[in-house]
Amino acid sequence: MKRSLLVEGGGGPLALVVAPANVPDHRLLEQTLDAIVLERPPVEHPDWTQHLSLDAGYDNDPSYLAVLDRDYRPHIASHRAPPPSPERRFPARRWVVERTLAWLNRWRGILVRWDKKAQNYLGLLQFACALLWFRRLHRLTAASH
């Protein structure tokens, strides 16, 4: 079972898609971007765009088109081009997604899939994502008091 996860900068899950393990990651990109549960904030300035960081598995034309069609600025590690100079390099953000997946793997029912139906497993994952957001909100409100 493959989980395609989209997170915001702090690691909060925004979208989640479940697919069979033999599906390449880049084929799940459009479904993942369309599965965002929150409405994106409006762009306040015409020069500002929202950025999307992806790893080298998404370095292909359909992935670039999917990202550009949804008004994101792509930051995709490239196999084709040499690495950019250090002053133009953007910091890697892959660890944020990996950390969120590790948070989800703390639940035994997610780490070891016991559900036969993919819809049931997706529901369990979505419930775990909601719990992550609830705990994050609880920490933020407790810290402010």
Topology:
Blueprint: E1 2-7, E2 13-19, H1 29-34, E3 50-54, H2 61-69, E4 72-76, H3 94-104, H4 108-111, H5 118-144
Parallel strand pairs: 3-4
Antiparallel strand pairs: 1-2
Number of strands: 4
N-to-C SSE string, H for helix and E for strand:
EEHEHEHHH
Number of helices: 5
* Distance N to C terminus: 42 Å
> How big is the Rg?
17 Å
Share of residues in strands: 15-25%
Largest beta-sheet characterization: 2 strands, antiparallel
Name the helicity range: 25-40%
Give an overview in words.
The protein has five helices and four strands; from the N terminus they run E-E-H-E-H-E-H-H-H. With 145 residues, it is α+β, with helices and mostly antiparallel strands. It has a domain at 2-100. The protein has a two-stranded antiparallel sheet with strand order 1-2. The chain has a two-stranded parallel ribbon with strand order 3-4.
